[in-house]
Structures are given as structure tokens and as C-alpha cells.
Amino acid sequence: MARMKFLCDVERCIECHACVTACKNEHEVPWGVNRRRVIVMDDGQPGEKAISVACMHCSDAPCAAVCPVDCFYQTADGIVLHDKDLCIGCGYCFYACPFGAPQYPQQTAFGVRGKMDKCTFCAGGPEEPHSEAELTKYGTNRIAEGKLPLCAEMCATKALLAGDGDVIANIYRKRVMRRGGRPQSWGWQAAYGQNV
Amino acid sequence: MKLIKKSGTTATSSRPGILGRAIGRRAFLQGTGLAVGAAAVAGALPTTMVKKAKAARSIDPKAEIKRVKTVCTHCSVGCSTYAEVQNGVWIGQEPAFDSPINLGAHCAKGASLRNHGHSTRRTKYPMKLVNGRWQRISWEQAIEEIGDKLLKIREESGPDALWFAGSSKASNEGAYLQRKFAAFWGSNNCDHQARICHSTTVAGVANTWGYGAQTNSYNDINKSKCIVMCGSNAAEAHPVAMQMILRAKENGAKLVVMDPRFTRTAAHSDVYVRFRSGTDVALIWGILWHVLENGWEDKEYLRKRVFGFDKVREEVAKWTPERVEQVTGVPREGLYEVAKIMAENRPGTFVWCMGGTQHTIGSNYVRAYNCLQLALGNIGVEGGGANIFRGHDNVQGATDVGPNPDNLPGYYPLSEDGWRHWAAVWDVDFDWLAGRFDQNEYDDGKGGKVKPMFSPGITVSRWIDGVLEDKANIAQRDNIRAVMMWGHAPNSQTRGPEMKRAMEKLDLLVVIDPYPTVTAVLHDRKDNTYLLPAATQFEQSGSATASNRSLQWREKVIDPLYEHKTDGEIAYLLAKKLGFADQMFKNIKVVNNVPEPESVLREINRGAWSIGYTGQSPERLKAHMKHAGHFDVVSLKAQGGPLDGEYYGLPWPCYGTPELKHPGTHILYDTSKHVMEGGGNFRAAFGTEYNGESLLAEDSWSKGAEIQGGYPQFDHKLLKQLGWWDELTPEEKELAEGKSWTTDRSGGIIRVAMKHGCHPFGNAKARAFVWNFPDPVPVHREPLYTPRYDLVKDFPTYEDRKLFYRLPTRWRSVQARDYSKEFPLIHTSGRLVMFEGGGEETRSNPWLAELKQEMFVEINPADANDAGIKDGQWVWLEGPEGGRIKVKAWVTNRVGRGTVFTPFHFGGHFQGEDLLHKYPEGAAPYVRGDSTNTATTYGYDAVTMMQETKTTLCRVRPA
């Protein structure tokens, strides 16, 4: 069985935000809720790098571990989803998530948290696939149609890859081999030093 | 194609949560009746969720979904996309993986196209200002009133009192009808975005080697070993092009970015060169100096294919590394490195955009880039080329066949020959057409007189002067009294405060656009102002020409929203009211007032021989869209299938009739291929000799040419001389007699020339020395507003001219004053990835607007500290001509010390005031801000009237 993963190739990411608007387009995510964002490091400086971030669909998801109402579940493909009918909008998952993925609608006068919203890997939610309820609460269900997340499918430079972790790892490995030298992935220098 | 969404589940079988209790709890909740069915859920949700439920679209999984292929309208890359439409509603957008141009990819703008299908922030129906308030009117009333006012102005002041901006965002068919509309109205006073985009490029490259267009393609960059980008920020302006650029880089190509600003493109470069804005000629000559010093130039190539390079050598010799550093700020080693990389990594491509064009000497910049590439032998080869990335999605097409003030479709000149050619294509009497124009004669600025029909009209960069300038100083009968902005933002043009005055002085102002645009709100007009809702390109079909000259056919996705009408229908309705529809649409099929795009394209095919817009019949273009997947991503050539051997989108020139089956031209001037396989050579457009020296190619010809050496353009005489005349059919002979290849409406001369492997436009050398330009060899001249006033005495600008495109134009008198003490910072401008052009359309798209919600200025930390400015603070940016804008400070090293940058997409504020109250209700864009061009200044290119937006001065202070 496939295990679904995202991988953002920072050598390719150009901060164009296509992934962000593709997500908005596909799921009609309201203003202020960002299932996916592009994070820029060293903005405007040599060494500037950008990376597109959303829910990483962790194998052992910290959000699920801390959720007081256990609204999280994983699909057979390893996609981490949650049930908005159960969610109480407490924000504990936001504490736990290493990527800042959980989002909360901020539309009321006093900033009351709504139900948590996050990237579904375009896999909808616990409702009947393609039902009105699923579309309304979670967005479309591309996985059920045999398609991959639109953010990755529309990425301008094919920096953002999504799909079976083994397959995208192969694509990335080939790129790294082609580029030669050490992997140019972001974080390498921080982890192993400049000269490794 | 019919598609039904699968109703079965494939991969969603949920399993219990990690703690194994989720299912149980869910079952419990269902049992309590809190969640039974969608309706009940919606009712039980907190208000925030209910709001979202209302906003979401509804998709019936069982009903038919129609897939329509269209092309993004936001830049010139030409990304295809599939729209999914159900019951007339655009419900989904899917990537077009089959397109060899984008392989499914999009940028932020392309990935949000579906918003066009339900956007509400539009001009929804015709409106007019009544005592300063917008009032809804009917289309009939709008056309009647506008028509009557235009006819009255025509009666009083002649046809040239109307000036209109057509659009690079119209389809080829729409843009062509705009040019035809101007012709049949009887005026050359029309223009479009290309003037302020790449006009200096078009003039520069056309005068160097023949055609005013990108020589290669985005895809061909895959073959480059070196990519130099100068004044191009593709990561934001052409993001999907970066897919090809980064692939080339991964294959080992070197990426060099030269820009005053460390752009998001520069972040991916191997070598980044920061230089002073406004000094490109010095920069390029600085590189070429090293090339020549080290003997890295391609001497054989220069001998065979380039004219006048010795004169360039003389100029370049003056640009020693010390001199170059003094002017540009780049030290010797920096440019030596660039020169070495370019010399050692051939073929190399050179990319430039607005950073290289929007200058008072923009055509010099362009020609300097050309000379550098010629010296390295990089033009006319795969992987090389002048890869000029154009701006709007159809700016190339609108330049080729659209509303230009200085030529006719296909770049036919405004001479009697040019007009007679098109009059014949249009099947109208030349004298009748001539009678439509003003019958006075205008001052030609050279001591003579010119008929208005043959006099280039006023440009979009200068229309405000056509309104404001004293009538006595203008070379036309009266000032401009009526303006129509037909798909053009005003905030992309410089000198905002003067534009406001010009708008207020007009007798009639009409906006034809899907959006109100800044034209609706900038001024304080009370009446005689109209908004006509024009349909987007997703609400009609038609062709668009991408930057690489490929034509792509868009299918109509949805019917026009609200009361929108297509450009074609609006042209027809106006022409009908103004009394020339029968003539203008004589051979065009019109159904219910809507001209059929296919029929319009066929008329273009029948006339635009000069640039090979003749082979791209609607049928061929549609076949290319259908079989897009057959084309190779690098060569753009179809492999097998019904289109075997053709290039994707039949990139022009696609010579001859559609029946000739020319495959299109992927790489211009490529002698390694036969002309019938898209090969070619430089064009013989400037005669056969200059001062006794031959201009024709030496020992160089395209593969298979029967004339082995240079030869002039083909015409009936040359054909007879060669003994090939009798290869024409009797019908062809009749039309070809007395004609050249560009005016032979049978296409016979082209057919026979190509049969013999010859290029119809001749085989000549590229011109390094362009004697008809103000500077035949590009020279550096300081910007009109320069921070280095000390250099003005060595590098002065041009003398003022009494008349240029009908208007007095100043250079020396502007530069006469030193502003650098009061206004110490260079003000440059550019694009952001989420917005386009004047930005009204993209700032009205919530998915894009959310990404950048405030207008800002990038300022270096040192300059910010000098001015007492903190990051995120409101500041005033003030220009030397009095315009000022209130924007947020973004303190960053992205700009060097002494330079500030602003994006030009904002509008809807004027000098700190939000103009929200002036928009029609509900039609204002989500994001508004002060426009860069409120603070920009005077300054125009001496060949094309391109405006200067990249180098002016300003000062910034806390607000």
C-alpha cells in the first residue's frame, strides 16, 4: 500500500504561490485560512530559499496524539484526516504540529476559534466521497478520483511533489544525482555543516 | 468529452484513529442526532462553518462534466489548462499535462483561473456617470450615447480626436478587430500594452535581424549551456518558464542574473551581478570588452552573418573595466566572470524583459544585448537566441496583428502600399478608406507634411500629452477629446497626476473592460463617462500568440457572465452605430452581432504574409490543441500522429497558405534546417548594400537553399530573373504580377521560393550597425533623472524634438536640471507573482489578493536608517515631478543601497486617499493601494516612445 507524502524540492521552489492558490481554487478555502503556505528563508539575501509547507501527514501524527476528542484518523494511504463534527476547535493540535499546519477560521468579532481546518491531501474527510457534506466541510476528494493533490499537480517548476513516498523519493533522488555533488536540500548545511 | 466523477471510493476507507476510538465516538454522536446527514450538519455548525458552506460551490457527482481546454490569460508563457464545466458553471480546474509548454504547471495566477468563472468584482452591466454617481444603463443606450458623442466630436475635430487603447489581453481576433476598427473609423490613434512593454525590443531586434520577436522559445532553453537574464525576473513574471530554466541548470547550464535588485530569480542563479539601474549599455559593453580582449568572439559567424561589427568594436574599446565600474558599479572581476562563462558555455541564451526595455534609451539596451549575442555566435542556433519574455498573454499577437499606431497588421507600413495591401484583403476601396481619415495634412516634424493616414498615431505612453499639450504644438487637427480604454489599465502608464488632469479634461471617457479599472476612479469627472463590461477570454474562443510565437486556440469555457460582451461584439455594435460595420465586416461571418473568431482568423491568414500568420488556420490550431501531447517538450516538434514534424502552435512565421503545410518556425534564423522544416537566415529587410558594402550573407545559407549565398527578398522580378516564374499557377501569376512576397495575396511567390529551399524574405546579414536609429551603435546615455549627475556631461541624453509621434518630446530640457540632491534614491519598479499589469483583475481575485494586501516599497536598511524609517512603517515616496504615494516600507537587502523598488500593480488609492467610494458598488478590487506610476516621471525612448519606468529618482520619508 502506498504511503502518501509531500516533498518540496527547495532547489526548484521559486516562491510563486501556485500551490497556495491551487488549494484555494480546488477547495474554496476562505480568506484567512491557509492549508498551504510558502515560507521564505533569508528573504532578499544570497542563499534565499523557499519551501512550500502544509500538513505533512506524519506517520505518527502529533496532532492525533494530543487531540482531546480524538478527531484524527489515518486513511489506508497514510493520509491524516480529521472529523470536523468531532473537532472542538481547541487548538491543541496547533501546539503539537511541527509545521503550523492547523488553521482556524477567524471570522467572528472576538476571534473565537472555529473548527480546525487543514490540508486533506485532497482526500476529503469522513463523509461520503463527493457528497455535498464532504465538499462543504473538507473540500473535494481527488484521491477518490485517482488524482493527486492539485497543489503539486500545478506546481510551476515541479518543486512540490506529492504521492506515494517511494515514487517521489525516486524522482527526487534522480534529480539530486543529476545535479551532482552533495544534496542541495534545505537544512543540509544546518545539519551537517558548510563543507560536507 | 464527457466525464462522470466516480462515485465509488478508491482510497478513503478510513480506519480507526491512532487511539482506536474515533469510529466509536462518531457513532455515538450520530446516535445522539447531532450529525445526521449533510443538512442537519450544516444547521448544527457554528456560524463560521455556515458561512463557508454558503460560499462553497455545489457539484453534482452524477451529472455530466464537460472538459474545455483553454490557455491562461496572465502571461506570455501560454500555459494550457482544462476547465471542468457543469450546467454552465466552471466548477473545476485541472492541469493540462499534455501541453508541451507547461506540462500542467501554473503559477499563482494560473492556478486561480477558475475565479474568472464566478468573480463578482466586475463591471456587471453598462454604466455611466450621472452627476458623479454610477448609474446602470442598457447596452442599447450606451452604444447610442457613446456613438452620438463620438460622431459629434468627429464632426467638430476630426477622427483623430478619438484615441483608444486596445488590448494585449484580447485574442488575436479581438486585437485585429481593434486595429481594423481604428482604420475604418479613420485614424491611427490606437495603441496597446506592447508600447510600454517591449516596443524597444521589437524595434531593436527587428532592425537588427528581421523580426520583432523572441528568437527561440522557453522550451528551447533546455538546450542552453548558459542562461543570462538581464532585467528579467522570470520567477515572478514568467514562473512556468523557470521550469525550463531550472531543468537546464540541472543539466549543467550556468545561470547568470544581472539586475539592480536581488530578485527571486537571482536567488537561483550561479552568478548574480548587481549594477546601477539605467546603465545596461555600459554593462554589456563591459562584458563584450572582455570577450573581444580575449578573442572569444565567433569570427567566422561575424564574417558570414553580421554587418558593421567593426563599428561596435570601436565603441566597446572605450569601455575599459575601469570606465565600466565607474558607470555601472560592477568591478572588473565581476564582468570578466560573466564574459568567461558566456564564452565557455555555448550555445548560450540571453533573456531580457522590462528591466531592459523601459528606458529612455531602451532601444540601445536591446541592440547592445543583440550585439553581444551576435559576437558569440548565439543567434539562429538551438539553445541560444534572444529569449525575450513578453508580458501579457497575447502581447505578441497584438503586436503582430493588433492595434498599433505605427503599422498595420503584420507590420505592414503606414504607406500607401501597406494600406493598399490591406484594403485589398479587406475588399474595400482604397479611396473610400482614405476618405475616412482627416483630409488635412499634418506637420511631419522634418519640415514636410504628411497625410494623417500615413502618420503614426499617438502612443499609449503619451496619450495624456495628446490631451494636455497646447493644440498649436501637436501634429494633428485637434487635441484628443475622447478616450476609450479598451482592455488597458491606466496605472501602468507614468505621470499619474497629469493623467488625472488629462482624464478630467476629456469630453468623453469610455472604459471597455471586465473590471472598472483605475480609469473609473482616478478622476473627478461628473458625466460623459461610461463603463462597458467586456467579456474575459474564458467567455469566448479565439487564438493567442505566446511569447515563443506559438498560436494556441482557446475554447470558450462559459457564457459571458452578467451583461458582458466580447471585444468582437462590442467592435461590431460600435461600428454599426458609427456607420461602417457593413464595410468592416464585409467578409467576416457575424451571428447575432458576434463576429465568428474563426472567420476573423481566416481574414488575418489572408493578409499577414509578411510574418507568416497565414498558415495558422483555425483548423490547424485546433488540431494542435487536441494533439498537444504529441509534441516533444524540448524541440516542440510533433513526433508521429497526424501532425508529424510540425512545431507546436505553428510558431510564426508559418509561411504560405495553410495547404502548404509549413511546420512553423521554432528557432528563427536557424540555417541548419531547410526552410520547409522551419529553417531560415537573417532577413534582407534593409536593402542589399549600404555605402557600397554588401548587406547580404556571405558563404551562409539555410540548408538545402538553391541559392548558395546571400540574396534579396523575393518579388515577381526576382522570380522571373531566376526563371522560376512559370512555376506559378495561372491564378497565382495573376495575383503575383507586380508584387513582392509580402503583397502577393496568392502566396505563390512564397510557395515557389520555398520549394527551391529559399527564404522568401531573402538571406542577409544581421546589422550590428543600424544606421536609421538615433544611435547606430548603442551608446550609454544617462537617464533623464539620474543619481550620477556628474556623468551627464560625458553621457548626455538626446536633444528635444519638436515632433515625435505627433507630439513635442523632451530629453535635454528635462535632464538640464540636477534633482539628485533633493531626490537621492533611484526609484525602479517591477512585477509581483500574484498580480498582473495594472492589477485590477488579479486584485479582484480573492485567492490572489490575499497573498499581498498592501502596496509597499523595498528599501535598503542603510537608506531606511538614513531616512529614519522602520520596517512595516507607512512612508511617503515622493517623485521629482510632484507625484507622491503612501506605501508600507519593506526594509530589505533585496535592493542595494541607493535604490528603492515598488511593484506597479497597485491602484485604487491616489496620493494616500482610498478611492473606494468612487467604484461602482461591489466592483472595487479586494486590495487597493497607491500606484507606483503616481510618482514616476517623464522620459521616452527615442525610437518607440517607450516610457521610462525603471530608472527615475525619489525620496522616501516617514508618513
The CATH class of chain A is Alpha Beta
Rounded radius of gyration of chain A (Å): 17 Å
Estimate what percentage of residues of chain B fall within beta strands. Answer: 15-25%
Strand order of the largest sheet of chain B: 6-5-19-18-17-7-8
Low-confidence stretches of chain B: 5-56
Q: Biggest interface in this structure?
A: A-B, 78 and 85 residues
Structural class of chain A: alpha+beta
Distance between the termini of chain B: 57 Å
Main beta sheet of chain B, described? 7 strands, mixed
Shape of chain A: globular
Give the quaternary arrangement of the chains: heterodimer
Separation, N- and C-terminal Cα atoms of chain A: 35 Å
Q: What is the helix/strand order of chain A?
A: EHEEHEEHHHEHH
Q: Estimate nothing, just give the exact number of structural domains of chain A.
A: 1
Brief summary:
The complex is a heterodimer of chains A (196) and B (959). Chain A is of the alpha+beta class.
Walk me through this protein's architecture.
The complex is a heterodimer of chains A (196) and B (959). By secondary structure, chain A is of the alpha+beta class. Chain A is built from seven helices and six strands; from the N terminus they run βαββαββαααβαα. Chain A has helices spanning 18-27, 62-66, 92-96, 132-137, 150-153, 165-179, 188-192, and strands at residues 4-8, 37-41, 49-53, 72-74, 80-82, 160-164. In chain A, strands 1-6 form a two-stranded antiparallel sheet. Chain A has a two-stranded antiparallel sheet with strand order 2-3. Chain A is globular, with a radius of gyration of 17 Å. Chain B has 959 residues and is an alpha/beta fold. Among the domains of chain B are: 2-55, no CATH class; 127-196 and 395-414 and 456-597, Rossmann fold (3-Layer(aba) Sandwich), CATH 3.40.50.740; 199-388, Dimethylsulfoxide Reductase, domain 2; 789-958, Barwin-like endoglucanases, CATH 2.40.40.20. In chain B, the strands form eleven sheets. Chain B has a seven-stranded mixed beta sheet with strand order 6-5-19-18-17-7-8, with helices on one face. In chain B, strands 29-33-30-32-31-37 form a six-stranded mixed β-barrel. In chain B, β15 and β16 (449-450) form a beta hairpin. The interface between A and B is large, with 78 and 85 residues.
